Amino acid sequence: MARGKQTVPSYLLHKPTGQARVRINGRDVYLGVYDSPESRAEYARVVAELAVHPTPADPTPLTPGRHQVSVNELLLGFWAYADRHYRRADGTPTNELPQFRQTFRLVRELYGHTPAREFGPLALKAVRQKMIDTGWNRKLVNQRVGRVRRAFRWAVENELVPVAVHQALKTVSGLQAGRTDAREPDPVLPVDDEAVRATLPFLGQVVRGMVEVQLLTGMRPGEVCQLRPCDIDTATDVWVFRPRQFKTRHRGKARAVAIGPRARAVLEALTPAEPTAHYFDPRRTVAEFRAARSAGRKTPRYASHMARNTAVRVATPKREPADRYTVSSYGHAVARAVERANRRRERLAGAGNFDAVPHWHPNQLRHAHGTAVRHRFGLEAAQVALGHERADVTQVYAERNLTLAVRVAAEIG
């Protein structure tokens, strides 16, 4: 019986020269010194390209002089630029830098030692396939492919690669829903009121206040984390919060959040001593936790134990809590509270005999607020409350409420 055709070419040794080679369509492609990291990287690149295009084109020869940087060198130069550019007004890095870091890791694995001018549409599609194989969803893949293009656009601007390279990369179209192997992202839906109520008892006072304020005002998680008295206009009964940092600040947009009586009462209970301090301070959470643990202590505090614990803390100090929550730490606190709520339900009812509290994250509170405002006051009110410039963006956040449709169907349909 004849052997089946081998789809993945082997990594071979060319004995006369000591180079690694791979045979494609009857032609040897040399990869560099056998068993070197560079040759292994080139082999991975060739295999990745074959996965998306079985008949690769001949490599473009380099011309001496300009445009001879490798992909690694291009990405390193762009990273230095991005580290300066993607900064907030207070100097802290934006969330773009971690996105670039994760994106560039895959590019470097496949094409790090490749001349940057040889990085074309086929290479970009190979990187995209690697992203899909990693398990990233379709929208995330499209976003990160766009970040690769952004790096090459910067390289063209700085005359590191010919303009034709970036123009060629722009021909790679984005993945479309239902026409790709990439998984579809789960839609971000409003969190159910019952899920929030079941979670609140398992949150400390500070994080519980964050959840309540966000649900009542529709702020973004990052805006809740940065709330300070000095950033709020308290001249009227309805306070107005103008965040220092927000999503569209770099585009010259303004952002103001109205804080009504119920949300104001939550903030007043957590007002810090200094107007420049944050309402939601993790140090309060830590102090509350330690106080509860001390109150529940059953063994006496022996003097020898206290002295030993003090010495250990001095010798191996733990990281002190920050002066404010981040979006990540806020989300982790909510996730842990949901887990504690479900463990309690399991203890009371037994495994498999209870309805679990669904996991949710703070972004869903903004969706829930938008949906509630739209249901009571209409789409324009939801647009204003969420701070969107266009109503079509609000449609994404303020899910259509089916109450009216159900009533119409019951009476007419």
From TrEMBL:
<protein>
    <submittedName>
        <fullName>Phage integrase family protein</fullName>
    </submittedName>
</protein>
<keyword id="KW-0233">DNA recombination</keyword>
<dbReference type="InterPro" id="IPR050090">
    <property type="entry name" value="Tyrosine_recombinase_XerCD"/>
</dbReference>
<dbReference type="GO" id="GO:0015074">
    <property type="term" value="P:DNA integration"/>
</dbReference>
<dbReference type="GO" id="GO:0003677">
    <property type="term" value="F:DNA binding"/>
</dbReference>
<feature type="domain" description="Tyr recombinase">
    <location>
        <begin position="183"/>
        <end position="411"/>
    </location>
</feature>
<dbReference type="InterPro" id="IPR002104">
    <property type="entry name" value="Integrase_catalytic"/>
</dbReference>
<dbReference type="InterPro" id="IPR011010">
    <property type="entry name" value="DNA_brk_join_enz"/>
</dbReference>
<dbReference type="InterPro" id="IPR013762">
    <property type="entry name" value="Integrase-like_cat_sf"/>
</dbReference>
<dbReference type="Pfam" id="PF00589">
    <property type="entry name" value="Phage_integrase"/>
</dbReference>
<dbReference type="GO" id="GO:0006310">
    <property type="term" value="P:DNA recombination"/>
</dbReference>
